[in-house]
Automatic annotation (TrEMBL):
This is Alkylhydroperoxidase. Residues 19-97 form the Carboxymuconolactone decarboxylase-like domain. The lineage of its organism: Bacteria, Bacillati, Actinomycetota, Actinomycetes, Micrococcales. Keywords: Oxidoreductase, Peroxidase. One of its GO terms (molecular function) is peroxiredoxin activity.
C-alpha cells in the first residue's frame, strides 16, 4: 500500500498546522530571533527526527538566509564545535530537548543566554517542526536529487 498524504486527505487540518507554524515563526521573530537561527532550529529538529524532506528544505532555507556551509556541516555535532554563539547553543539545546522527549538533554543553565520570550518561541518552533516532520515522513514525501 502506498503512503497516504495526510495533508491531501485532510487539507483543513493541514492548513491549521500551517497557521500554527506561521504563528510560531512570528513569535520567534517578535522575540528577536533571526531567520538563520530559526532555520537552524528547524533543521536540527528535522535531523533528529530523520525527516529527509525537511532537512533538505531547511538546509536550503538556511543557506538563503545567509548561513554558511561549514556551520550546516557541523550542526549534527554542534556541541563539539566552536561555531555557535551562546544564544544559538541555548536554542539548539532547547530544540533537541523538544525533539527528544524521552530524556532531557537541555542544560537549563544554557537557557540563561535567552530571554523567557525566546525560550518559549524556540520551544514553539521546535514543537511545530516535529509535527511537520511527522506529516512528511508519514505521508512519504519524496526526496529525489
Amino acid at each position: 500500500m502506498t503512503r497516504i498524504n495526510v495533508g491531501k486527505q485532510h487539507p483543513d487540518v493541514y492548513e491549521q498546522l500551517a497557521t500554527l507554524s506561521g504563528a510560531a515563526e512570528g513569535a520567534a521573530f517578535d522575540a528577536g530571533l533571526d531567520r538563520k537561527l530559526i532555520e537552524l532550529v528547524k533543521l536540527r529538529v528535522s535531523q533528529i527526527n530523520g525527516c529527509a524532506f525537511c532537512c533538505r528544505l531547511h538546509s536550503r532555507a538556511a543557506l538563503r538566509a545567509g548561513e554558511t556551509a561549514d556551520r550546516l556541516a557541523v550542526l549534527p555535532a554542534w556541541r563539539e564545535s566552536q561555531y555557535f554563539s551562546a544564544e544559538e547553543v541555548a536554542a539548539l539545546s532547547i530544540a533537541e530537548d523538544v525533539a527528544r522527549l524521552s530524556h532531557s538533554v537541555c542544560d537549563e543553565d544554557s537557557e540563561d543566554a535567552l530571554t523567557a520570550e525566546k525560550v518559549s518561541a524556540v520551544t514553539w518552533v521546535a514543537t511545530v517542526m516535529c509535527a511537520w516532520n511527522r506529516v512528511a515522513i508519514r505521508s512519504g514525501y519524496q526526496v529525489s536529487p
